Amino acid sequence: MSTGAAIPPPVLRSARWYGKDDRDGFIHRSWMKSDGYPDDLFSGRPIIGICSSASDLTPCNSHLDDLADHVGRGVWEAGGVPLVFPAMSLGETQILPTAMLLRNLMSMAVEESIRGNPIDGVVLLGGCDKNTPAQLMGAASVDLPTIVLSGGPKLDGWHQGRAIGSGTDVWRLSEAVRAGEITRSEFLAAESGMSRSKGFCNTMGTASTMACLVEAMGVTLPRNGDLPAADSRRSTLAHLTGRRIVHMVAEDLRLSRVLGPTAFANAVRACAAIGGSTNAVVHLLAIAGRLGVDFTLDDWDRLGRGVPLLVDLMPAGRFLMEELSKAGGVPAVLAELGDLIDGSAPTVSGVTIGEQIIGAERFGDDVIRPRAAPLLADAGLAVLRGNLAPDGAVLKPAAASAHLLRHSGRAVVFESIEELRARIDDPGLEVDADSVLVLKGCGPKGYPGMPEVGNMPLPLRLLERGVTDMVRISDARMSGTAYGTIVLHVAPEAAAGGPLALVRSGDVIELDVAERVLRLDVDDTELERRRASWVAPQPEHHRGYARLYVDHVLQADRGADLDFLVGASGSEVRRESH
Predict the structure, then answer these.
(1) What is the rounded CA–CA span in Å between residue 211 and residue 469?
(2) What is the arithmetic mean of pLDDT over 488-499?
(3) What average pLDDT does the structure give for the chain?
(4) Residue 6: per-residue pLDDT
(5) Please, what are the domains in the chain?
(6) What pTM, to 2 d.p., does this model score?
(7) Contact in structure between 511 and 518 (CB atoms under 8 Å)
(8) Is 469 exposed, middle or buried (0-12, 13-18, 19+ CB in 10 A)?
């Protein structure tokens, strides 16, 4: 029974640095005072770290310094001390060979920056695709009070009087150029109109997907997933986020108390409803691995079955993120899902997700469909298995062509991305509309880094005949902005000796999405004969992080994290620095 006594405030972690009257305390306080901080800031005020991935080399994150200022206002107002610190920033459209190679490195930088510094609570401020999962992975391994604030999507793109979407229309227009439907100058004219404000992709790409899913998981305040970067309400959200993290420290509301099994289940269902990116699969698996949550690739398939596609947004639909926000945003989507969302899941707001979405309104039926009239009745990401993918592969039904979801065809094999680019438009390529394009060497180890090349271009002569989709299979990923009947994340990958390595042109491959089957019609004896002559590729990288990555990266079905990063080290640091 409650005695009515006040709950004492938690002992602040930062007191380890600032609360001692000895030489070490002198050092920690004195050097901070070079910025003009008065004495009382180091006595009982929570220190809030703002982990920002702002960078001019990450265009989607270039405005985060301004948002950090607004977070800081909220922190000061609530009685905390905001301190911004940098994280490695991953620009999806800039970094070579792929930002995914560096996601785990960024997570390491975030983890060690949080653990090693006098931080009581942390705001994760990011945007572009890999930044949000990397920041969450790192924070999860420390497990302090943590809240996420995304940078927000761009405003709608415009070209020749119609809306165009980041990424999605790049793929569409580039294929139109190859087919001779538009000129190269017409193609290039769309560049400026596509990106006419700050923010990340305005389609349901990976950045938008992750911003929506972290809201569905309860680690953000409402509307994090949809408010545009240019909307003043995004700045208001930043201010409120700063306020809230101070109260979370007082409540000792740690990340592990929010990100439990129900949070991941809600994320899977929300991903289906919004037509989210397949990249969310590897990211959520990796985050779960850091937290010790029992969450597997099969859970993606089980939990997503029967969940309808409600959001009519590119690449699965017609609209862009600005319209989703106007229609009610993520709270409206979650409310429309009704009993498919576990309303008991906790959130950083201090209420359950069910309580948080009470009163959420859906404006109109065009952008967010009613559950009774979805775009697609069963939109959950499909996890395929069979002798070609014994550890699983992923396909996005919402982005696929219905007539190809059950298909059999002869393989046209490319051993590398370079071979594909050299041969795909060769008039002598033996390929027809029923062929299955197979790309190897693009998994976590093989590339390395698992790039977004799974949405292979179609052969030119088929494009010219009006073919718009084919079954494509690889150990790669694809951009969340891409579309097509594309099987991704085949595990084990070719470079690790998975069955994909043994496929030859002319082999028959069977795809049955309803039955969740991906099968190579080659008998076991022949496959063993091929395996006996298979030679593992030699890594090109012999030093540095790339070597570390290749030696320790897990396969896609385990989130492509590094094996020694799975789990947590906690927040305690036992030794002093001087």
Answers:
(1) 29
(2) 98
(3) 95
(4) 44
(5) 45-155+197-356 (3.40.50.2300), 157-196 (no CATH), 382-534 (3.50.30.80)
(6) 0.95
(7) yes
(8) middle
